[in-house]
Amino acid sequence: MLHVRLAPGPAPRNLSRRWDSSACLHSWCSVPCPSRLNLSRTYSIKSSSAGSATGLCLGQCCRIKPLSCKCKLGWSSQPPPDSRQHFSASSSASEAILTAQSDIQKLFVANEKIGVLLLNLGGPETLDDVQPFLFNLFADPDIIRLPRALRFLQKPLAQFISVARAPKSKEGYASIGGGSPLRQITDAQGEALMEALCGKDIPAKVYVGMRYWHPFTEEAIEQIKKDGITKLVVLPLYPQFSISTSGSSLRLLESIFSCNVREDEYLVNMQHTVIPSWYQREGYIKAMATLIEKELLKFPKPQKVMIFFSAHGVPLAYVEEAGDPYKAEMEECVDLIMEELEKRGMENPCTLAYQSRVGPVEWLKPYTDETIIALGQRGVKSLLAVPISFVSEHIETLEEIDVEYKELALQSGIKHWGRVPALGCEPTFISDLADAVIESLPYVGAMAVSNLEARQSLVPLGSVEELLAAYDSKRDMLPPPVIVWEWGWTKSAETWNGRAAMLAVLALLVLEVTTGQGLLHQWGILPPLP
Length: 530
Prior knowledge:
Strand order of the largest sheet: 6-5-7-8
Number of strands: 12
Order of helices and strands: EEHHEEHEHHHEHEHHEHEHHEHEHEHHHH
CATH architecture of the largest domain: 3-Layer(aba) Sandwich
Number of helices: 18
CATH class of the largest domain: Alpha Beta
CATH topology of the largest domain: Rossmann fold
Number of domains: 3
Shape: globular
Strand content: 5-15%
């Protein structure tokens, strides 16, 4: 076992941007979260070797047409050399630092089969897919968490909710063309990423694993096994890490690995690493700034436009109780984008709000809908919406932002509305993702988690298991986004207990009226049946 110390990153950022108090419901400052985890920076590289395996093309995994990539795979059927040999030339005592791209290629490409697994939410592709997609969503214990004694009701309850919500959800998907474009866009991103890696002389295959719809993560893992991938980079397509997005997908990966750990030697030996967030990367920041700049120039008075960052919300308890870095990463991400815009001569005011809240629990504030109303009341006339947590168009951008929030903005007195498109396959963005994959290759198998306080450009890398332990140590105690039952004297418990009592009284009344028997008839409150 070889101990490796990660190369030191830049000093922690001192963020001081003040958000426009006239643009938001309250004034706040983006500063590093004091509760962020402070992890050790020395880790172990576990050596392992994965035997050769048969291959299966990416086109079968993600239904992507094969690329006309000219880079030679050069994969050998020989097992990869021991990882200790990889680092022996560049390590002194317990330290090993690899920075040159040529070193990465030499050490990690020659005898390896490299794979990249893109993780995303998934979405129904047709209206017929809506109900089963919703079933998969609500059958996830991280979405609806029942008491242990009632977990046998998880799937029946998911079936009931999905059937009840399907008609309204179908209306939303019908309004954007009859289904979510997320699968097609993610497939295109995977194809573009594979081409970008080929252009950088890194032969790799890219796979797509969705959380709640095809191609499921389990399907992607099966294809990865059939392809004989020996080094895997896991890349969630969420710029900022959250327990409820990247964390949920990583928990699924953890369960796949742990369930097969005794019977699947391949998964035991396959080396992998995770890039849990990448919002700080220069290419991502510049790509976002370029899209914003293009949309600003479409307004009559670009300098007067309020830039409105709308992020997907998460339950407040995730941040306050579990130390979810999502809020801090989101605020810093906005700060970095605004700094880039200022370098280009644009000093527009901006604000950040959170959308898509569901259920009775409190979510991150300010809420997008409330903030739009407040901006209209305060005289804002031009608003540019920026979907900051989304890299692909889907129902939350095409319907929630483009339809619901646009209508709300116009009703609130805002005269000029614009929306920045999601990044999709924007060349700078894709090229930067390829660079992130290349930079992570030395860490494959290292199971290293870098220091969160250091705010390195190459943000925490590690195995699925260690990431979950670092980010989500309290996941069993976290309230889910939608609470069905919560025991104890809480506001949510009072609500559900009251509903249960009302249902019980209603059932008794129906029973008495239909049968003519019961306490109300015995006491003479209800007349006997004729």
